[in-house]
From TrEMBL:
Keywords: Coiled coil. Residues 284-339, 387-448 form a coiled coil. Residues 207-230 are annotated as: Disordered. This is Chromosome segregation protein SMC. Residues 207-222 have a biased composition (Basic and acidic residues).
């Protein structure tokens, strides 16, 4: 009976080993066929398979310990004979080991369930859709901000700059008209000054002619004694005339007509009038008055010319500054237009790249979700089958252990009833051989029969 049980146990163990190898090979192929984008799920599966392999190794080691205990039990039976206390102690030890195995099995089952719950499964699709929405929202906000900035720049260039240019052009036109008016006024003043200078020349000529005629007509024997004095007076008048000519030349150039010059003209005119008051007739006195009046007009005209000249110089400087500012503004507008064109081109390129990236990311996430969903379902089913098979195998081993324990009890009873150990010794020896052979098969199973995936350590 014991031989039949061990044979059945060996066959069941081989069948379970073949089933485990088949499942492990299927898991290995399914994992190798997964795309590279499922690294996270492969890591989770790798962890689950590693834990499952650790459980199998632990159970194998515990079975080896049980076999060692059975060997020790048989050795004690052969050595001690009918020592029932040792048998009971061994049986209690085996019961404790079985309880410990059951507790360990429950713990490993809980670990497998926790690992199964950690697999994301449907959360991958939900997270991918959420990431797509966030990426799309981010890029829409970015494009909206860029469009708003471009609109502001275009408004600045199309409205403010053009209005400023129009205003500057109008100011330039007004300044040009003002300069034209000032130039006409300056020409009028110059013409008036030229007429006044001609009048002064004419009056001086008349004054010289009148002095010559007056000196010839007035000369008498009574006045011969005064000829020297008149000649001296004429020399003084001639000197004054030369000074007036110099002042007239200065007025013609319109450069040195100042208040001091006007004062000198008035002093010279007064001196001329006082020196010639006794030697001139009424027309000469009238000509002197005309000269004084013309001199005053010349002073006023010269002041007006100076003022117009200063105004013209200021206007020329303002026009020059305006032209420089206008050229700088035009250059700035060209640079801003180039910058806006460059920014618009860069934004178009960025929008194209973002659209391509968004389309690629959406397509890639959809493909990953479509590929992962059936594979995760298959992996979950395979993991559940592996865990169920391991639980059934451990349960089967526990049942076989209980059967072996009952067989030991039967052997003990038969030994007590028969009083001899002949048949029992033979059965024990046969059982020992079967156990040794099973130990060798378990060693082979542990060392090379289990197919371990290539990515497992």
């Amino acid at each position: 009976m014991t031989f039949n049980n061990t044979t059945f146990f060996r066959r069941e163990l081989e069948a379970k080993d073949a089933e485990i190898r088949r499942l492990m090979s299927g898991v290995s192929r399914s994992v190798e066929e997964l795309p590279h984008d499922t690294e996270y799920d492969i890591a989770v599966l790798k962890s689950a398979l590693t834990v499952a392999d650790d459980i199998i190794n632990d159970k194998t080691q515990e079975l080896e310990e049980l076999h060692k205990l059975l060997d020790g039990l048989r050795e004690k039976i052969q050595a001690e004979g009918t020592d029932e206390s040792a048998l009971h102690q061994t049986i209690e030890m085996l019961k404790n080991d079985v309880a410990r195995l059951e507790k360990c099995l429950l713990e490993r089952t809980e670990e497998l369930n926790s690992l199964k719950s950690m697999i994301p499964q449907d959360n991958i699709v939900v997270n991918a859709a959420q990431r797509e929405k966030e990426i799309e929202r981010f890029y829409r906000n970015l494009v909206g901000n860029k469009d708003a900035r471009i609109s502001q720049l275009e408004a600045l260039l199309s409205t403010d700059a053009d209005d400023l240019l129009k205003a500057l052009q109008m100011d330039n036109q007004v300044l040009a008209e003002d300069v034209y008016d000032k130039a006409n006024s300056l020409r009028d003043v110059t013409r008036k000054l030229r007429d006044a200078m001609e009048t002064i020349d004419r009056l001086q000529s008349e004054l010289a002619h009148a002095r010559t005629e007056g000196s010839e007509d007035i000369r008498s024997p009574e006045q011969d004694s005064q000829s020297d004095g008149l000649q001296e007076l004429q020399r003084i008048i001639q000197a004054k005339d030369e000074a007036i000519s110099d002042l007239r030349h200065q007025l013609a150039t319109a450069t040195d007509a100042t208040a001091d010059t006007a004062e000198r003209i008035r002093v010279l005119e007064n001196s001329l009038a006082e020196s010639s008051v006794h030697g001139r007739e009424a027309p000469v006195v009238s000509a002197s008055d005309d000269i004084v009046s013309l001199t005053q007009k010349i002073e006023l005209l010269q002041d007006e010319v100076d003022e117009k000249q200063n105004t013209i110089e200021a206007l020329v400087g303002a026009i020059k500054d305006f032209n420089e500012a206008n050229a700088s503004l035009r250059q700035s507008k060209i640079e801003m237009e180039d910058q806006v064109k460059y920014m618009r081109q860069a934004l178009e390129n960025t929008q194209g790249a973002m659209s391509h990236m968004l389309t690629s990311a959406i397509g890639q996430n959809s493909e990953v979700a479509a590929v992962l969903s059936p594979q995760l379902s298959a992996i979950d089913a395979t993991t559940n089958m592996s865990a169920l098979d391991m639980q059934q195998k451990i349960k089967y081993l526990t049942d076989e252990l209980n059967k072996s324990r009952r067989e030991v009890d039967d052997l003990k009873k038969a030994f007590q009833e028969s009083g001899s150990v002949g048949g029992s010794s033979y059965e024990i020896a046969t059982l020992r051989k079967e156990i040794n052979r099973l130990n060798k098969e378990l060693d082979r199973y542990r060392n090379g029969s289990v197919i371990t995936p290539s990515f497992l350590p």
